[in-house]
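We modelled each protein-ligand pair independently. The example shown here corresponds to the LZDS7PUF entry; the chain sequence is given first, followed by the ligand as SMILES.
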Amino acid sequence: MHSSLHDVLITPAEMAAIDLAAAQSGIDSFLLMRRAGLAVAAAVLRLFPQAQRYVVLCGPGNNGGDGYVAASALAECGANVAVFAFGDPAAALSGDADRARQLWDGAIDPLASLVPHLGDVVVDALFGAGLSRDLPEQVVQVIERINAKGVPVIAVDLPSGVDGRTGQIRRAAFAASHTITFMARKPGHLLLPGRSLSGALDVVDIGIPARIVQAQGGGWRLNTPALWSDQASRLDASTHKFRRGHLVVFSGGAQATGAARLSAAAGLAAGAGLVTVASPKSALDINAAQLTAVMLREIDDRQDLEHWLRDTRLGAFVLGPGFGVGDRACDFALQLCDRALVLDADGITSFQERRSELFERLAVAAGRVVMTPHEGEFARLFPEIARDEKLSKIEKAQAAARISHATIVYKGADTVIAGADGKVAVNANAPPSLATAGSGDVLAGIVGAHLAQGMPAFEAAAAGVWRHGAAGARAGPGLTAETLVTSIPPLG
Ligand SMILES: NC(=O)C1=CN([C@@H]2O[C@H](COP(=O)(O)OP(=O)(O)OC[C@H]3O[C@@H](n4cnc5c(N)ncnc54)[C@H](OP(=O)(O)O)[C@@H]3O)[C@@H](O)[C@H]2O)[C@H](O)CC1
Ligand SMILES: [K+]
């Protein structure tokens, strides 16, 4: 992949515009298809050199064209190749794809006649970026037959049936062991379930200049340090502890203090200079018994908080983990909207019936506020957006950030970070083991530490999600929330 395209995500519509712009700049589109198909053939031979038969499934568009190029290249290498086409290829194909078909000099059998055998390797060139509706019954049946047989599938551009914009399945989809895509990742490779159906992803440079890809691409990004390392490098770990930021984490009552302490420990490990747990009187003793480097302060009600907030050195706040759902959470959060705040868990749920109040306050308060909902919490705060099936998870997070005027971390195995200004990134470095009790509390603490150190909300959130994922990878498969805290890698 071209290095400058490493973190760029291209939607199918943008890819079509890129193809057009490439053709208008004089680039030979058939040459691009040839490079695409040859890259697929090379990958197939490298990955599965011992297949008894390469079964190439060709669709009615340019994805199918890539398939015919790959089939010809495999046959030229002496491999046993069988081609199956959806519909009548002579009638359906035009342009480059038809030219590629005519260069294939073997038989083309109807897709429905395919009987997969063990020893087959399937090259899926049915549908790629041009999938525009649910798959027809005949294709669904073939996909189910192949998935059930368990033969390896290598997908060209996208596993057929996966929507390249949303990652959603259009009735059925191949579960590919590998996907070979071109120039840049597509959102459907990163968003679930598309991510798990794509298998190992290989991004091949087929020669479209990076400037054309960048010019036509929108702002959707993969979450990598390139997005926030500038902001991170301004933080100097050797500076005075107050300048490294003072983070406050609110504790719940006596029965629910662990989550706040986990957030606080994560905040300290992630670089906050000072961390204080703000605890109700009822939980002071139990918190005091378990805190060492983290400080403790009694905060019972609005007045206590209002008084304490006169201290402008309090840099950022985490409200939500174990806090308890109710008006007290709302009152505290509304008081903090003009500061740097991570609103998590119960802090989010508390606003289910009072969301406009929160959003109106956030619209006028000039704070740096990050909300970190998982799917259920997201649906409580943004029910209309959550229900809109036309939107991808990326667009849902963007819409939520827009109406709430906050940075949204829409959590899941495919966490999306969206800024109120439209910036958006999809995270991909989190291992599945990260879905463990207390993991969200740790994330809130890391993001809080970044806010306390002065990072802007979007960058603080994106860096937090990335470090959380990296900590998960370092902690390994048996991780617990505690080992996650001790595995947080340095920032930058
Ligand atoms: N620059 C690049 O990245 C290059 C990519 N290449 C490959 O081209 C495809 C995209 O090709 P495109 O022709 O735009 O789209 P597809 O081949 O994926 O599919 C379009 C055809 O499929 C029909 N279609 C769509 N959905 C369905 C469905 N559910 N059921 C039946 N038929 C469907 C569609 O028919 P319409 O009636 O909607 O027009 C089209 O006939 C990309 O993925 C790459 O693999 C180039 O080869 C190299 C450059
Ligand atoms: K495909």
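Residues 225-486 form a domain with the UDP-N-acetylmuramoyl-L-alanine:D-glutamate ligase fold (CATH 3.40.1190.20).
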